[in-house]
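Re: the 211-residue chain
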Amino acid sequence: MSYGDRMSSTRTARGEERRAEILRAALAVIAERGYRGASLAAVAERVGLTQQGLLHHFPTKEALLVAVLADRDRWDAVPDSQWRLDLLGSLVEYNAMRPGIVQTFSALLGESVTEGHPAREFFTRRYDDVRASMAEVLRAEYGERLPGGLTPERAAPLLVAVMDGLQYQWLLDPESVDMAGAFRDFLTLLAEPTDPTEPTEPAGPESSSQN
């Protein structure tokens, strides 16, 4: 390796270390002050940078917060073969212990539905991955059909919707919403068989046209 290559490698390593330091600081600020209080100035001060110096690594607040959420996903990650429904329940309980990061996730998720939002690509890709992962969790638990008749692929979006939807309700009124308890209740519903005489597949166009 040439001298120039070594210098470039050293600069890259230092940049990655600084980036990781900023993300840790941002997570701490979010935990202390919540989503709105996590300003670039507050994070920059925590790591001994000017705000302009922080912008060298993360050009906007949204970019920084998306990076924090991506890191959170890596910290929470479990190999697909090891995910189980009971572990999902434990994850919901863990999230109830870190309202700042849940608030950041939920706020950015709500904003990301607008066209051109910097977090839109992150959440779109994330939901593709999470739905696929949850389908495999359900398949490992129930096989190719859940007790109610749904396939894992059809039930997976419902599972994800309940997890994320409960977060919004809990953030708005944590005294009234037992997020972990409600999620366990939903898992109980998934395990309940439906009346075998009722159809489990949606009615096709031909059936609705006969009404």
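Residues 203-211 have pLDDT under 50 and may be disordered.
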